[in-house]
Write a structure and sequence with these properties.
The chain is α/β, with parallel strands linked by helices. It is built from five helices and six strands. Strand 4 and strand 5 form a beta hairpin.
């Protein structure tokens, strides 16, 4: 199936194409405007983007919203993960601020929701993936992006951060990988 991914981020298009084998994942055309992420949940933000992409293209579309939820911060930054330091913050700014706000590490969780919208049938469905971890007190590793250098996944067991894992190791346990596998399983039956 050809599916429009509601992003122009080449890294995310490659990642989702790898996670959704057998599907043709295409980036959103430059002229399509996505709504701002103003939802209070990952699902609201993902659905808003998927609906806009599906309406603009007339094709099935997916979108994701994801972030990190830190226990010591009552689940924050959550949907504001990409904008923790400010609206246009770089990954390093967000990571540095998080490490300053929670200097002793602690429990955290990555959450991803992928929304699927088919404009022909009106069908809308969301798929959630989670990955539990603990936060380091200093960044480690050069892979990944965002908060990966400070996120040690519990399921992996080696004590390495997400930024120290290979792409295949990360995909096997990540929140996005889990949400994508749930979507792929559902697509196989619909």
């Amino acid at each position: 199936m050809r599916i429009v991914l509601a992003t122009r981020n080449a890294h995310k298009v490659r990642e989702l194409a790898d996670l959704l084998p057998g599907q043709t994942i295409v980036p959103l055309a430059d002229e399509v405007v996505l709504p701002p992420e103003t939802g209070s949940t990952f699902a609201e933000n993902a659905l808003g983007k998927a609906r806009a992409a599906a309406a603009a293209t007339g094709e099935p579309a997916i979108a994701d919203d994801s972030g990190i939820c830190v226990a010591a911060l009552g689940g924050e930054p959550g949907v504001r993960s990409a904008r923790l330091a400010c609206d246009d913050a770089a990954d390093t700014e967000n990571l540095d601020l998080l490490l300053r706000r929670v200097p002793d590490g602690g429990d955290l969780e990555y959450v991803c929701v992928i929304a699927f919208v088919d404009p022909a049938s009106g069908l809308e469905k969301t798929f959630e993936g989670r990955c539990a971890g603990v936060m380091t007190t200093a960044p480690r590793g050069s892979g990944g992006f965002g908060y990966d250098p400070a996120f040690v996944p519990v399921d992996e067991g080696s004590g390495r951060t997400m930024a120290e894992l290979s792409a295949a190791e990360k995909d096997a346990i990540s929140h996005r990988g889990r949400a994508a596998r749930a979507l792929l399983s559902w697509l196989a039956t619909h």
